[in-house]
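Our consortium's second objective concerns turning raw sequence data into structural hypotheses that experimental partners can test. To show how far this objective has progressed, the report includes one record in full. It was chosen at random from the queue rather than selected for favorable results. The single chain below, 184 residues long, was entered without modification.
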Amino acid sequence: MTRRHDWTTIRREYVEAPSEKERPTYEQLAQKYDVSIGYLRQRASREKWAEQANKHLTNIERSRRKKLIEERSRQLARIDSAKLNIAEALFKMIGDKLYQMQSADPQKFLKPYEISHYAQSLAILSDLCDRARGDEFTAIQLLADRGILTESHCHQIAQVMGESEESVSEAIAKILRGQGEYPD
């Protein structure tokens, strides 16, 4: 009496292995399914199992890369959005200060070092918006290194970065409005 083997299952186990390392050898399959190793090799060769297995692994790798690219694109979009939120809040703060210059109150006039500070801030923000790539924490650190943000503000901004875009903008604006001190 001839035994019937489930060749679809045997072929699938070889071809659809998730990695080269996890793929069973022909010998392992022959032993597991009680099949002649010679016949299994002939059938695998005739049906081109090795080619199918390589194609399967290529598709897995292609799918993995596609997911990585999509995830990286989403990350970059969030980073760009965060940078724009920071820039928007800083532009607003600078605009508010410049508006105060029109006031009749001499106490609210900008001092020369403040004007210089704001001009440098605007240049850095323009550069930041132009580039709009990289890590938001790097952008925050750049602003801190240039004396635009204090370490305390950097920490506060980093804490709100995971919130919704609108919440981040509002929180950053509040943080920056409280800044009040400018380097000489």
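The partners drew two points from this record. Residues 49-100 form the longest helix (52 residues). The CA atoms of residues 93 and 177 lie 7 Å apart. Both points have been shared with the crystallography group to help prioritize constructs.
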